[in-house]
């Protein structure tokens, strides 16, 4: 059980073997000589993404260095999934002769059910989350009407009353479109 790359949790071992949690913990540690380690997180990047990150990281660092990071508002949207993890464990048990390099990286599996949330963070605080309607295609018009306008109306002035912030977003098509860029320029953001 404990030798698998995705072992069951100690709680599920307790149920399956009908013993106490202390027995499972003792057997793993002393009898099997296994130690519990958290798997390293691993985000899969394709070669194109690696190249883009290499090109953009140094100029972004130069923008953020010294105290200039205090004026940045970083925005992004993310999926929050409400379903199970397909029994993938974040821990793995290694015997004493094995090295941490033998750990299988923990990767996330895409899920179908979730909710998309847009937020930003800055040195002056965070905004309230804006939820994207289920099944909506985020194009420039939706992004401007349902995300940027409420953000500029409610949160931008609260976080930076003088309006001297640098608005940073990723290069998603709805963010990088001419319409969105023109809207942000017109709003003096």
Uncertain parts: none
Give the integer mean of the pLDDT values: 83
- Indicate the structural class: alpha+beta
Could you tell me how far the N terminus lies from the C terminus, measured between alpha carbons in angstroms?
Answer: 56 Å
Discrete helix count: 6
Would you give the CATH topology of the largest domain?
Nucleotidyltransferase, domain 5
The arrangement of helices and strands along the chain is: HHEHEEEEEHEHH
Report strand %: 15-25%
Please tell me the CATH architecture of the largest domain by its name: 2-Layer Sandwich
Shape: elongated
At the fourth CATH level, what is the homologous superfamily of the largest domain? Ribonuclease H-like superfamily/Ribonuclease H
Number of domains: 2
Q: Determine the fraction of residues in helical runs and give it as a percent range.
A: 25-40%
* Main beta-sheet strand count, sense and barrel state: 5 strands, mixed
What is the strand tally?
7
What's the oligomerization state? Answer: single chain
> What is the gyration radius calculated from CA atoms?
23 Å
Please give the CATH class of the largest domain: Alpha Beta
Protein name: Mariner Mos1 transposase
GO molecular function, one term: nucleic acid binding
Please characterize this protein's 3D structure:
This protein is an alpha+beta fold and about 190 residues long. It folds into two domains: about 1-40; about 65-85 and about 110-189, Nucleotidyltransferase, domain 5 (2-Layer Sandwich). Helices cover about 35% and strands about 20% of the residues. It has six helices and seven strands; from the N terminus they run H-H-E-H-E-E-E-E-E-H-E-H-H. It has helices spanning about 10-15, 20-30, 45-65, 140-160, 175, 180-185; strands spanning about 35-40, 70-80, 90-95, 115-120, 125, 130, 165-170. Strands 2, 4, 5, 6 and 7 form a five-stranded mixed beta sheet that branches. Strand 4 (about 115-120) and strand 5 (about 125) form a beta hairpin. Helix 1 (about 10-15) crosses helix 2 (about 20-30). The protein is elongated, with a radius of gyration of 23 Å. It starts with 9 loop residues before the first helix and ends with a helix. The mean pLDDT is about 85. GO terms for molecular function: nucleic acid binding. It comes from Araneus ventricosus (Orbweaver spider). InterPro entries: RNaseH_sf (IPR036397), Transposase-MT_Hybrid (IPR052709).
């Amino acid at each position: 059980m404990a030798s698998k790359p995705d072992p069951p949790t100690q709680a599920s071992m307790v149920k399956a073997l009908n013993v106490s949690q202390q027995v499972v913990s003792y057997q793993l540690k002393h009898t099997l000589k296994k130690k519990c380690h958290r798997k390293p997180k691993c985000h899969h990047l394709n070669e194109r993404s690696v190249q883009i990150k290499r090109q953009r990281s140094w100029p972004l660092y130069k923008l953020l260095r010294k105290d200039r990071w205090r004026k940045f508002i970083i925005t992004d949207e993310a999926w929050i999934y409400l379903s199970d993890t397909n029994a993938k464990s974040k821990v793995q048990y290694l015997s004493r002769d094995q090295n941490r390099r033998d750990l299988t990286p923990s990767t996330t599996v895409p899920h179908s059910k979730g909710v998309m949330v847009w937020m930003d963070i800055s040195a002056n605080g965070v905004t309230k989350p804006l939820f994207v309607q289920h099944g909506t295609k985020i194009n420039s018009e939706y992004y401007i009407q349902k995300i940027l306008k409420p953000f500029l109306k409610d949160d931008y002035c609260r976080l930076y009353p003088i309006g001297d912030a640098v608005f940073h977003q990723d290069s998603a098509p709805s963010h990088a479109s001419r319409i969105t860029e023109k809207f942000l320029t017109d709003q003096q953001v």
